[in-house]
Amino acid sequence: MTIRRIDVGPRMSDIVIHNSTVYLAGQVGEGATVAEQTRDILAKIDTLLAKAGTSKSKLLQTIIWLDDMANFAEMNSVWDAWIDRANPPARATGEAKLAAPKYKVEIIVVAAVD
Question: Which value, to the nearest 10 degrees, does the dihedral of the CA atoms of residues 53, 94, 92, 86 take?
């Protein structure tokens, strides 16, 4: 069994790789709108996945938290433009109070790595 941690901080790692599976910490983004935050988060996810040696085409599972389910369509408009349609992950979306009031979206992903 191998576990590799990347960008380790005092509270968490941004990336944990266990065998052939990549786990990313929950990602939040900057911006005033759900769409802006979602775009920022997805760009961060692309960067972190590349750092781990994989890409969005290898996503296995995604969990999306919204501060308000009324923002579901706005988030999906950005998600649908980004996702690899040939390889969509299993996905759940729910509503939650996020870490700070400025955050409207948080996305957690698990991916495979070659």
Answer: -70
